[in-house]
Amino acid sequence: MLFRITFISLLFSSAVSAQSLTQQQLEAEISGASPTPTALPTPDPAARINALGTLGDNGLLLIPESTNDRVMAFDPLTGNLLDPDFIPADPDNLSTPIHAILSSDGASVLVSDQLEDVVQQYDLASGNYLGVFAPVGGVDVGILDNVRGLSLAPNGNLLVSVGSGANADAIAEFDTAGNPVGNRVANGADGLGSPFDVLVRSDNLLVGGINSDIIHQYTIDGAPLMNLTAIDSFPEQLAETASGNILVANFTGTEQGVVEYSSSGALIGVYNPPNLGGYRGAYELPNGNILTTNGGGVHEIDRAGNLVETKLDGVSARFIELALPTANLPPPPAVPVLNANGMLLIILLLGLIAFITLRMRQQ
Questions:
Q1: Phi-psi group of 244: left, alpha or beta (phi > 0 → left; psi -120 to 50 → alpha; rest → beta)
Q2: Among residues 143, 61, 127, 65, which one has the least CA distance to residue 97?
Q3: Model's pTM, two decimal places?
């Protein structure tokens, strides 16, 4: 198991450039070192209600941040922050949360943790911790060690990228109850080295390897296909655009930036605004711009390589996941119901008002 490391110097500012990424910072990214937590205000219940309402209407963007070990919620239409504490800070159960997705039944949030070596589960309605989802029974580094990106297979099973340990260089698979069922992509299949994410497309899987420097392509069942493309040199999150293109948040290398490919792997562009760098997450907004994350926060960039707006700074933000509404969304907050004593008090007050009104009329 990897141990938690806290170096304040490892918190990337939004001014990180390709040239300033040190070997220590690269090793920290691979192993999951995270910065020292900051003091946070008490979570706002109203913000959570607003975020759940947005989830019911348009979906919700879930973004873990490893400065304070929590999951934030953003508007999928604008990229604006809705609730910084959708899953409140939980340092007891999270060390370096990477990816948060809805469970197959849509009733809970699953969060991969790079240092805890498990996928944790939280109640969608309240954000309360429910326990370890996978592997069932708790930490087993023979199955999960240095985990990163998640995805749901077409059958609802959970796919988890594994970077270290006895099961390194694989995409592990778990059933809908969190029981291990083997690997969807075998260890080192077709040269896969240190996967950071797995993207499920309609007819295949894409897996980025930061040691193999390739966006690998597999059948839905995990058999190797022709590689999508080579990349230099640290692909983190993979995301599909509305047109079917592929976005890759490339942490560093000669192609540092959000890299866009066609569905067949042809390079379309590399978007790397000056003084940003260290890209981890990517998501296409409806306006055509891209929401991306790094060790300095959450940012909106355009396809001309400009920083449009920093949505949130000062946190080490990770992958971006669109959570869509399901039949199992939590109900809206209940309207308070008066008990018998409350009803009696109202009746007495109404009677008193009527009595006073009658006496005033008699005078």
A1: left
A2: 65
A3: 0.86
Would you say residue 326 lies in a domain? yes
Q: What is the largest CA-CA distance in the chain?
A: 97
Q: Which three-class secondary structure state does DSSP give residue 219?
A: strand
- What stretch of H or E contains 52? helix 45-58
| Residues in contact with 363: Cβ distance below 8 Å, sequence separation at least 6, in sequence order | none
**How much is the pLDDT for 349?**
59
Query: 209: number of CA atoms within 13 Å, CB side?
Result: 27
Q: In which order are the strands placed within the sheet that holds 97-102?
A: 97-102, 108-113, 118-123, 129-134
Q: Tell the burial category of 110 from Cβ atoms under 10 Å away from its Cβ (0-12, 13-18, 19+).
A: buried
In a domain, 353, yes or no: no
Tell me if 346 is assigned to some domain.
no
Structure token digits, residue 187: 């260890």
Please, which residues bridge with residue 269 across strands? 260
Q: How many domains does the chain have?
A: 1
* CATH classification at residue 16: 2.130.10.10
Structure tokens at 288: 């055509």
Domain of 41, in residue numbers: 8-338
Residue 356, domain member (yes or no): no
Are 231 and 197 spatial neighbours (Cβ–Cβ below 8 Å)?
A: no
Q: What is the DSSP string of 293-332?
A: EETTEEEEE-TTS-EEEEEEESS-B---EEEPP-TTPPPP
Residue type, 226: M
Closest by CA to 100, choosing from 328, 317, 327, 333, is: 317
Q: Read off the pLDDT of residues 240-268 as tens digits, 9 standing for 90 and up.
A: 999 999 999 999 999 999 999 999 999 99
Let me know: does 222 contact 213? Beta carbons within 8 Å. Answer: no
Q: Percent of the chain beyond pLDDT 90?
A: 78
AA identity, residue 33: A
